[in-house]
Design goal:
By secondary structure, this protein is mainly alpha-helical. The chain has one domain: Up-down Bundle (Ferritin), CATH 1.20.1260. The protein has seven helices and no strands. InterPro entries: Snf7_fam. Pfam families: Snf7. Belongs to the SNF7 family.
Length: 215
């Protein structure tokens, strides 16, 4: 009897252990999938932000265009950090040992949630289009993004962003020049000039002949 109770108790403990371990793995996989989803959305937002920067430059809103480039760079960094967390989570899923990494699981989930929360605030496409508006709401949204990105970049980052803005400006100028009317590809040759002169001479000869006949 005692042996049966002992065996039953051990099976119960093993069952609880497996359940806890499985739950940890499930939580990690859910976190991993969320991160992958947010990374894809962020990549779309980055492309959208760059296009917005171009449109703002066309409207002469250089300060807002620079702000969009800052937001784009910030999201690129967030993606890099999130991808590093993804690698860590994937390793933990592959060779998890719940007894030794339980606290690490919690910390990684917490760090991942913070990253996702920040990324979620940054890639609402419907909201970000407000930056194009020359209204009070557009100005307020500009200030909101500026505050969110405050302190995110060092001096070198700022120089890189200014350089990117300059490259974007030059690119747009080149595109505008390409849109100007082109010079005729077929240049006027000497032969064309000679033919025209001959036509003029023939025309004059006909007029003189007509005058003689008329007299």
């Amino acid at each position: 009897m005692g042996g049966l109770f002992t065996k039953s108790k051990k099976e119960s403990l093993n069952s609880q252990y497996v359940t806890s371990q499985d739950q940890a793995i499930l939580d990690l996989k859910i976190q991993r999938d969320k991160m992958k989803t947010y990374i894809k959305k962020s990549e779309k937002t980055i492309a959208h932000d760059k296009e917005l920067a171009r449109e703002l430059l066309n409207k002469g809103m250089k300060d807002r265009a620079l702000l969009m480039l800052k937001k784009k760079k910030y999201l690129e960094r967030m993606i890099e950090k999130t991808e590093m967390q993804l690698d860590t989570i994937q390793r933990m899923v592959n060779d998890i040992e719940f007894a030794t990494i339980q606290s690490e699981v919690v910390n990684k989930l917490r760090a991942g949630n913070e990253a996702l929360k920040m990324m979620n605030q940054m890639f609402n496409l419907d909201e970000i289009d407000k930056i194009m508006e020359e209204t009070k709401e557009g100005a307020q949204f500009q200030e909101e993004i500026s505050n969110m990105l405050s302190g995110a970049f060092n001096e070198q980052d700022e120089e890189d962003l200014e350089a990117e803005l300059e490259r974007l400006t030059e690119q747009q100028m080149d595109e505008k020049l390409i849109g100007l009317p082109k010079v005729p590809e077929n240049d006027i040759t000497n032969e064309d000039v000679i033919v025209d002169k001959q036509n003029i001479k023939i025309s004059k000869s006909k007029k003189e002949t007509s005058k003689v006949l008329a007299s």
